[in-house]
Specification:
By secondary structure, the chain is an alpha/beta fold. The protein folds into two domains: 3-244, Rossmann fold; 247-286. It is built from ten helices and nine strands. The strands form two sheets. A seven-stranded parallel sheet has the order 3-2-1-4-6-7-9, with helices on both faces. The protein has a two-stranded parallel ribbon with strand order 5-8. α4 packs parallel to α5 (145-165). The longest helix has 29 residues, at 96-124.
């Protein structure tokens, strides 16, 4: 029986992933700051659900939750780093305290949990790590620059983990959801900066005004998204990256095309910076 360890499991993607894993007969360690909310949402699985208190920004709590998980179920087979928070506002508008808070959860919190879980998986020589990134993990946008930067960090960390852990039998997948009808745009997850700078009214300011009204009208279905995440966890050869949602696929394709065009336009400049001896050495016979 597979054991899932899921952060941010009291609502949104985390709760739906936990629900579907339990429905399929798996064990679930559902962690959240309010762990009682996990129990209340999933009361029908008392033997296979361990609801554990976990503020991911507290490393000691991460270690305690992992210890409780292994005591209850013996193994941790799948880690889903789902807990996260957002911030809306231009980069200049974001205060130091706000930036640090979102990094504490989205980056340092993910690292706290990962460091706690990986020793278990390394001993097993098996496991799956699914790190929840975002459409914003490869294509940033005005008003979400700080949030997107945390997801860029998650992607860089995850790429390295993919290389480091593959020889140990542990797979790493970056999950990049587009906009889904979760609670992410609620005030409980998305902080809107109080500082407003008029010069950004026609860039980030447009999104600042529009985003709250989009809540629960997004194109993505969380139930289908969670099912896709379970499919990734069960894949024989899971991908390094997986996009979820038509909006995410469109943004990926647009970014790839933009990168290709820009790279071609500036290729000569890029190649001009090598040392002359490097060019000679690599020029081949003749």
């Amino acid at each position: 029986m597979t054991t899932w360890f899921i952060t941010g499991a009291s609502r949104g993607f985390g709760l739906e992933i936990a629900r579907q894993a339990l429905e399929r007969g798996h064990n679930v360690v559902g962690t959240a700051r309010d762990h009682e909310a996990v129990e209340k949402a999933l009361p029908q699985y008392p033997d296979r659900l361990l609801a554990a208190a976990l503020d991911v920004t507290e490393e000691n709590q991460a270690r305690a939750a992992v210890a409780a998980a292994t005591a209850a179920f013996g193994t941790i087979d799948i880690l889903v780093n789902n807990a996260g928070r957002g911030v809306l506002g231009a980069v200049e508008e974001a205060s130091d305290a706000t930036v640090r808070a979102v990094y504490d959860t989205n980056v340092f919190g993910l690292l706290n949990v990962t460091r706690a879980v990986l020793p278990v998986m390394r001993r097993q020589r098996s496991g799956r790590v699914l790190n929840l990134s975002s459409l914003g993990g490869f294509s940033s946008s005005g008003a979400f620059g700080i949030y997107c930067s945390t997801k860029f960090a998650v992607e860089g960390i995850s790429e390295a983990m993919h290389q480091e852990l593959a020889p140990l039998g542990i797979d790493v997948t970056i999950v990049e959801p587009g906009s889904f009808r979760t609670d992410f745009l609620d005030a409980s997850s998305l902080h809107i900066e109080d500082t407003v700078i008029g010069d950004y009214a026609h860039t980030s300011g447009v999104l600042r005004s529009a985003i709250p009204a989009m809540n629960h009208t997004q194109p993505g279905d969380p139930v289908k998204g969670a099912a896709a995440i379970l499919a990734l966890a069960n894949a024989d050869t899971p991908p390094l990256r997986a996009q979820l949602g038509s909006d995410c696929v469109a943004a990926l394709e647009q970014k790839i095309a933009q990168l290709q065009q820009e790279s071609a336009a500036w290729r000569r400049l890029a190649l001009s910076t090598d040392h002359d001896d490097t060019k000679t050495a690599s020029s081949g016979p003749g």
